[in-house]
Amino acid sequence: MSSQGLNVVDRIFELHDDIRHVVIVNSMGQVVRIASRAKVTWPEDLIRQFSGLMAAVVLGVSEKVQNIVGNIEYLMISYEKSYVILLRSKEFIFIVSARKTMPSEILRKLASLLSGR
């Protein structure tokens, strides 16, 4: 795994305390890193299944319309208690969970961090 994938996790967590989990998935849909600072974590096998499938299906389908609407900046799924945010960097897909209290400007900072802007 490249240094981007290793170092960026700390930078993601530094953005805000409401960010709880970071999962890094490669272009093949394989989970290459799971990081958490939450007291309660999901079972690792569930994270691997959920994250790999979500990244492959959602981002794969969206690539089919990329020439019409442009590149995806991020996808956000809103659950009752938290957000799950999918973002793509040059090398990886990042799946970030956050409490719903996370300010919206943090999402923009997160997208900017991973896009290299």
Radius of gyration over C-alpha positions, nearest whole angstrom: 13 Å
- Strand order across the biggest sheet? 2-1-5-4-3
Helix coverage percent of residues?
A: 40-55%
Indicate the CATH architecture: 2-Layer Sandwich
By helix and strand content, what is the structural category? alpha+beta
Percentage beta strand:
25-35%
What is the name of the CATH topology? Beta-Lactamase
Topology pattern, helix = H, strand = E = HEEHHEEEH
Span of the ends, CA to CA = 22 Å
Number of helices: 4
**The first-level CATH class name:** Alpha Beta
The structural domain count equals 1
Largest sheet, described in full? 5 strands, antiparallel
The stretches of 5 or more residues where confidence is low (pLDDT under 50) are none
Summarize the structure.
By secondary structure, this protein is of the alpha+beta class. 42% of the residues lie in helices and 27% in strands.
